[in-house]
Amino acid sequence: MDVKEQSVIMQSRPRICGEQYRGDTGGEKNESNINNFIIEITKIKKHFLSKTISYPDIVARNGDFVLITGASGSGKTTLCEMIAKFLPYDSGNIAINGEDIKKINVFEHIHYISQFPEHNLIGPTSFEDLKMWLEYSITMEKENLLIEKLKEYYLGDLIEKPIWKLSFGKKKALAFCVLSIIQRNIWVLDEPFAGMDNELSKKINELFVDFLTKGGIIIGTSHVNNLNYKVQNIELKGTE
Fold first, then answer.
1. Where residue 68 falls among pLDDT bands split at 50, 70, 90?
2. Contact 38/51 with Cβ under 8 angstroms?
3. pLDDT of 102
4. What are the start-end ranges of the H helices in 35-152?
5. What is the mean pLDDT of residues 209-222?
6. Count of alpha carbons within 13 Å of 178, Cβ hemisphere only?
């Protein structure tokens, strides 16, 4: 198991359906907005052997969707991994509510979905994956609700199929199914719509709108801006 896989598994201690934002797993929903949140990315630089990337300053508050665009190699995935604390940055600062992320457990606030969905899946099957994210502390009634949730994400006939046998698109669906049931205030999503068919893309768009309306923050990457709702667009150039 490599360092990135270990880091992803560290996210498997979520607060499920918590006080501010509740996924649809059967608990009573709280329609109030997520508590006030702000993430600030300031003067970040990352050094590579052949170049240094200087990132623009970014400030995101409740209800913001920050879309990071740029050509391949411009540093989009690197920025996501630095925000999610999977990679260190060489200078600058990333803070959540004024606290340096180097000094806090960011997994209490951020859920990161890699462009490679298998990096986010920790169970042997779709159903076991959801249960592991819930730390197995669920009743039979909740198990039935999880099955319904898998059906909602077009995985109902694949519940017991080994994850390694799932297609790329189905793995992506499972990663977002997990996202829909755990509480985080900030979602960091690398190429979220890559490999999705139109049906799943529509479902994910609805998930995003619901989360943003409740006050969540999304930071996502894409080669182009083809979303149908207002975003804060940040284009990366890939150099200083």
1. very high
2. no
3. 93
4. 76-83, 126-133, 140-152
5. 92
6. 32
DSSP SS3 for 112: strand
Q: Which residues pair with 99 in a beta bridge?
A: 96
What confidence tens digit (pLDDT) does each residue in 164-180 have? 999 999 999 999 999 98
| 113 sits in which H/E element | strand 110-113
For the chain, the structural domain boundaries read 3-9+36-235
pTM value? 0.81
The answer to whether 217 and 37 have CB atoms below 8 angstroms apart is: yes
Q: Which residues contact 186 (CB under 8 A, 6 or more apart)?
A: 37, 39, 60, 96, 109, 110, 111, 216, 217, 218, 219
30-142-201-73 Cα dihedral, nearest 10 degrees: 90
- Helices 126-133, 140-152: inter-axial angle, 10-degree rounding: 120
Q: In the block, which residue shows the tokens 């960091």?
A: 188
- What are the contacts of 225-229 at 24+ separation with CB within 8 A? 225/67, 225/69, 227/65, 227/67, 229/65, 229/205
Vertex 196 angle, CA 162 and 76, to 5°? 105
Superfamily (CATH) of domain 3-9+36-235: P-loop containing nucleotide triphosphate hydrolases (3.40.50.300)
